[in-house]
Amino acid sequence: xxxxxxxxxxxxxxxxxxxxxxxxxxxxxxxxxxxxxxxxxxxxxxxxxxxxxxxxxxxxxxxxxxxxxxxxxxxxxxxxxxxxxxxxxxxxxxxxxxxxxxxxxxxxxxxxxxxxxxxxxxxxxxxxxxxxxxxxxxxxxxxxxxxxxxxxxxxxxxxxxxxxxxxxxxxxxxxxxxxxxxxxxxxxxxxxxxxxxxxxxxxxxxxxxxxxxxxxxxxxxxxxxxxxxxxxxxxxxxxxxxxxxxxxxxxxxxxxxxxxxxxxxxxxxxxxxxxxxxxxxxxxxxxxxxxxxxxxxxxxxxxxxxxxxxxxxxxxxxxxxxxxxxxxxxxxxxxxxxxxxxxxxxxxxxxxxxxxxxxxxxxx
Length: 364
Fold this sequence. Notes:
The protein is of the alpha/beta class. 37% of the residues lie in helices and 11% in strands.
């Protein structure tokens, strides 16, 4: 048997002449038993039709093609992926293929049988989002009674199995008062509690309006400043940073590593370079993962219609977290500006004493 470390694997894949596809996220379904207001894909406008989602054999074909690409990391997400009747069938197949699988779930459907199953077919990581620290908060966020008690019981059982756990949080006006308690609970089960507050807008298919319950930029920064780890992350990011004009006076509108090593597949077979950039899509029902990754997706990114915008020359660009996908989900131009992100940059600049160094913030 050939055994290698993850580091050795990454070096091997990167040395390949082709663009490596080392990470894949698979949205098994958009169905969810929770009705959370911050979810970008919940409550679709059109009625759910199970016949439109990828069948078991279609998912297996895609995963086999991912194995052919020497892929290793795989995240199963949703919606709630455990709602798939073929979840165990798909999971066994993926484990037998040797993928390192992370499972994103709300935890509500993990019963004793599922715990035993996951203990036998162990995930690389089991990631559960905690939506509050009481049954009352959970009902306010998810629409379910007594759910906090149920989730806590599940976490206790899971922690005894040795399954690698991650407990993370998403906070809005509906549950922000529980932040300290949720953070404390999360730190009991994992080394690093991850959380989000500066949420992106909703997909066009969603009837939810994230903007209605999202914290204000000023509230986001106030919370960041009082959490030591998050505060240090931001300090490290801006350490020795000097606002300066980018080469040729403009930046690329795509500032991340979009389409470089990972992709996202929705439950209908659409392949995207990242989750929120839904408008860049390749139909895997009509083509192959190889063609989508090596030809179609790169071309769509290159041809993406982008006119020069104010965000490309803004001195506060490194503070706002802006990207093309976020702008589109906020109903703005792809190159901005996005009012929420501008205010976030201004608040961060004030918090870290950078306001006097950023000229363009005077107009925010």
